[in-house]
Design a protein that fits this description.
This protein is 66% helix and 0% strand. The chain is mostly helical.
Length: 117
């Protein structure tokens, strides 16, 4: 993928469209340079270049969206699993409290034992 370099302000530096196209071509683009009567790049050629650059960008964006959707599904399933684990832990804790209360009440009902010599 060709990475575009930022241009300076227009009034400071004006580059011809042909120079940009040649630079992209050297960077691995399959763009073919055609010039009209006055040495300008044809509209069709610029349109093709724009489509190629746009397609690459859109493909990258689509890939990122797919990754984010995958991560979202994983986050949702992990959140659901953790919520289920928290609910189970709360239920188990409540059962332990009830069991401890039953045992404590049962021990209180036992007759007092004399000290063992």
């Amino acid at each position: 993928m060709a990475i575009a370099e930022p241009l300076g302000p227009t009034e400071d530096k004006q580059l011809e469209a042909g120079a940009h196209i040649h630079k992209l071509a050297r960077a691995g683009s399959t763009f073919q340079h055609t010039e009209g009567d006055e040495g300008e790049v044809s509209t069709e050629s610029l349109g093709n270049l724009l489509r190629q650059v746009s397609k690459t960008s859109m493909d990258e964006i689509d890939g990122l969206i797919a990754e984010l959707q995958t991560l979202r599904r994983k986050l949702q399933s992990d959140g659901d699993r953790i919520q289920c684990d928290i609910t189970k832990h709360a239920d188990l804790s409540q059962q332990v409290i009830q069991l401890t209360t039953i045992i404590s009440d049962s021990v209180k009902k036992l007759p007092a034992t004399s000290a063992i010599s």
